[in-house]
Structures are given as structure tokens and as C-alpha cells.
Design goal:
Length: 381
């Protein structure tokens, strides 16, 4: 049985993207590769709506976060770190290992930072060098309103560094418009590409900061990457995973063909419909306020001690999801795939079947409410 992947990463990859990665290799100092990297750079700028260069490099999302710390932070810097889950904690740990002094602001799991939280933290720590946010906290299924949070900061305030590992390509994320100085992401989630490519975007202020001090990492030296990207023929400073770059280019073409705004609307529509299906069956959602729920991943709570059993039951039906990353019993289902209504029925129906197989009392009358929600969320043509 072919497994259907609904984990928060890696995700199902369109056939055209898989096929692109099987193309014959070319040298990474060849005209064919230069043209490919130039196309990738242009499409990433279009997706993010930025004027500054966007770096694509061999890495996971964690490596991209490491690159932000290595280039924009220095030992002794005071850093306000907002965390509402496992990945906020990870970003904090990365900054700490760079030698930054962490000023933690812990948000209850299932909620996100607010502009009031930001203003209060800055009043308490006016000399902070940087602020850390996680845009999409996949460990809880919560999405931070970055635009609102950054608007609470003065323009000459601390650098704003953002983990967009699981949001880029799935939800709107516009760093220049939202005054974000450093954004880190990757290939294997919203960009529908196999794992292995990190994405980093800096603001003009971020690039000035990076240029003002040596990077603590050669591999993740962002000014070095920029110098090679801005050569007459765009390049990487060292050998890239060429076939993954083939795949990334095809995935970006695929998303651009859909239209980035349409893509965001499709992901939102799928998430809201799946939420309706879950609640109609009898599951509760971990994030209670709908405006805080992530379009990219839904966290459904399950009875205590049953998450692992339900995950196994789903796997037997050919559906792979993720358990929680905290003490709360939950299943996390991602919505990156562009499969639409048929795929939504597959995962919702499988969740119902797995729950019944595990002895849960669930309502079978979830399809009609889900369909009504889907119809209401119809995207403009």
C-alpha cells in the first residue's frame, strides 16, 4: 500500500517535482545550473515579495535557523525569545548556543504571542539586540500573527528573527512588509520539495548586521552565499545537492502556476474544512481560538494514552500523521498537499476509521458539515 503522508514534514511531493529530481546531473559550475539557481532566486523573491536576495543552501530548516544565529547574533547579545511550543524552544536553544543571553517569554501552549506581549517584553528589556518568533508552531498547531507583533516594535528596535520553517509556501509570509530582519525556512514543508535545502531571507538591516561582524560558521556564512549568488552567473559557494535544486525549481514553478495567493487560500480552506470534520466526529482541537489555528497543521486531541495507538491504526490504513511533541495527547495532521477535497475525505475518513478501530465513540455524521464548510470556502477563480 502506498502510504499517504500527512505529517508536518516531510510532505507529499507532486509527481512533477519527483520527476524533476530524477533528471541527469549537471555540474554546479555549468550554465545550466547557473540558470536554474537564477530562476529559483527570482521565484523565492516573488513568493516572499522581497527586494533583497534570498539564499537557498544545502541545509535543513534547523540549519537555516543556525545561519540566522551565526550571522546576526554575537556572544553576549540579549535576545527576547517568544516560545509557545517545541520549535520556539529549539530556536531559543540555537541562539543560546551562539552565546546569546536569552530573555525568555513563555506563551501557554495552544496560544501565541500578542502585540501586548511584545510591548511588555520590550519595556522590560529595552536593550535587547534581537527578538525571536516562531511563525507556525507545528508542535501545537498555532500560528503567530507576525504582522501584528512586529508592528508593536519600533522601527529602530531589535532585530526581528523568525522561524518560518513550516509556514513558507503555505501561509502568507512577507518579511519586508512585516519588518522582519531574518527569516529561516526550508524545502520540505510548504515548498513541496524533498528535505535538504534551507532558505534564508534577510532585510537590508539584516544584511548590514551580517556584514559588520564575521560569521561564526563558514558553511552558513550568509555574506559569502550572497557574493556567489550575485556573481554574473549565480552560484553556490560550494557543491549543492543539484538534484534537490531541480526539484525545488519545479515545485516553485508548480506553486507559481497555481498562484501564491490562491495557494494560501487553498491551504486555509483545507484546514478549516478538516477542523470542521474533526469537531463533527467528536474530537476537540488543541488550539481553542480559531483565529490562532494554523492553516498548515491541525492538532486534534485524543483520549489520554491513545495517540500512539491511533497513529498505528492510521498507518495500517495507509495514512501517516504525527503525534504531539509535548505531554498533551494529540495527533497532528498537516495540510501542505494540494490534493483538495478527495484527499481531505481520505484523511478525515481514515481518522474516523482509526478512531472506531481503537474503540472511540465517534459520530459518522461529519461529511455533510465538512462539505458545507468546503463550499463556503470556495476560492475565487
Amino acid at each position: 500500500m502506498h502510504p499517504h503522508l500527512f505529517t508536518p514534514g516531510p510532505v507529499e511531493v507532486p509527481h512533477s517535482v519527483r520527476a524533476a529530481g530524477a533528471a541527469p546531473l549537471v555540474g554546479h559550475r555549468s550554465e545550466a545550473y547557473f540558470a536554474l539557481l537564477e530562476e529559483i532566486a527570482a521565484l523565492l523573491k516573488k513568493l516572499l515579495r522581497v527586494s533583497q536576495p534570498v539564499i537557498a543552501m544545502p541545509s535543513s530548516g534547523t540549519g537555516a535557523l543556525e545561519a540566522l544565529a551565526a550571522n546576526l547574533l554575537a556572544p553576549g547579545d540579549s535576545v527576547i525569545s517568544f516560545s509557545c511550543g517545541a520549535f520556539g524552544d529549539r530556536f531559543r536553544e540555537i541562539a543560546s548556543r551562539r552565546g546569546a543571553t536569552i530573555l525568555p517569554v513563555d506563551i501557554p501552549r495552544g496560544r501565541t504571542a500578542t502585540p501586548s506581549d511584545v510591548r511588555r517584553a520590550l519595556e522590560q528589556h529595552p536593550g535587547a539586540a534581537a527578538v525571536l518568533f516562531t511563525h507556525n508552531e507545528t508542535s501545537t498547531g498555532a500560528l503567530t500573527d507576525l504582522q501584528a507583533c512586529t508592528s508593536a516594535l519600533p522601527e529602530d528596535g531589535p532585530l526581528v528573527l523568525v522561524d518560518a520553517v513550516s509556514s513558507l509556501g503555505a501561509v502568507p509570509c512577507f518579511p519586508e512588509e512585516w519588518r522582519i530582519d531574518g527569516l529561516a525556512s526550508c524545502s520540505q514543508k510548504g515548498l513541496l520539495t524533498p528535505p535538504g535545502i534551507g532558505i534564508v531571507a534577510l532585510s537590508e538591516r539584516g544584511w548590514k548586521r551580517a556584514a559588520s561582524r564575521p560569521s561564526s560558521s563558514y558553511y552558513f556564512d550568509l555574506p559569502l552565499h550572497r557574493r556567489f549568488l550575485e556573481k554574473a552567473r549565480p552560484q553556490n559557494p560550494y557543491t549543492p545537492p543539484v538534484t534537490l535544486f531541480y526539484s525545488l525549481a519545479e515545485a516553485l514553478r508548480f506553486l507559481d502556476g497555481i498562484g501564491f495567493e490562491r495557494r494560501f487560500a487553498d491551504v486555509e480552506r483545507t484546514a478549516r474544512t478538516f477542523e470542521t470534520a474533526c469537531e463533527s466526529m467528536g474530537f476537540s482541537l488543541f488550539v481553542k481560538e480559531q483565529e490562532l489555528r494554523s492553516p498548515a497543521v491541525t492538532a486534534a486531541t485524543v483520549p489520554e494514552g491513545r495517540a500512539e495507538e491511533m497513529k498505528r491504526a492510521l498507518a495500517e490504513l495507509g495514512v501517516e500523521v504525527a503525534e504531539g511533541q509535548g505531554k498533551e495527547p494529540m495527533l497532528r495532521v498537516a495540510h501542505y498537499s494540494p490534493g483538495g477535497w478527495p484527499e481531505l475525505c481520505l484523511v478525515a475518513g481514515s481518522l474516523y476509521g482509526a478512531g472506531r478501530a481503537c474503540g472511540l465513540e465517534l459520530s459518522p455524521d461529519f461529511l455533510e458539515p465538512a462539505w458545507n464548510c468546503w463550499k463556503k470556502g470556495a476560492c475565487p477563480q
